[in-house]
Fold this protein.
Amino acid sequence: MPCELKVRDVGELSANPRRSLTRDQLDHIEEYLTLKNHAKSAKDVSIAGGVDHVIDNLDYYLGVPEANAANVIY
Amino acid sequence: MSYTRNSAHWMPDIIKLCDLFYERGLTKNDSCLKYSPDSFTAMDAHCNDLVDCIKREIYPNHPKICDCLLDHHKIVAVHVLSVLKNQPFIKKCHFENETYVDTMPNEHYCLLLLQTILLGWHKSYGKTVRLTMPVKYKDCLLLLFRKYRMSRSSHTDDVAFAYALSNIVYLIDTYFVIYA
């Protein structure tokens, strides 16, 4: 999907929200506001590893107090 | 909905998580606690409907809605809500040796699912992470899930709770996921 704002612009907008926008930024602001957090599609994400990890550490992920958090790294 | 949502390919893993949670996390008592794998068909369809509804709200004028993306916090919220609405576990009565997990099996499964998707998402980005949600916060989430499951909102098409939950997932992702 087309979005002409560069990553640098996005950072600048958040860092200085009261700064006047350029004409170029204004032209694309609607797309920026809509798309800024949508970098990855779920199509490219697998949760299979997450399933195995959570099941292998079931007590920890259920919140059982005795479970050792220090060892649970994914 | 005339397209397949991007997370539809997760369903076999979501079912596997539920199967293993039933095997290893719950006390077996067929007369009081029933596992219904058939509910995943309705759950899958409900996920599609929620995703479509939210996309149409966020991208009202987009000509090709199937190309629009939702952030992963909303995707997590959608899957949790679908579980709470379609309930793979039916609890009929209390029983001897019942655990806290047994008392709210659907809610505990949602807790696992939420964490599984977040972990899987970060793993797909190549990140090694720890999820360090405090036990008290997990308890609060379980109660919130239960409140929603028992409420009238879970039987309507209203997506307000999906937005609220996605905001909570964002906070969990921000404050309780630690990069190793």
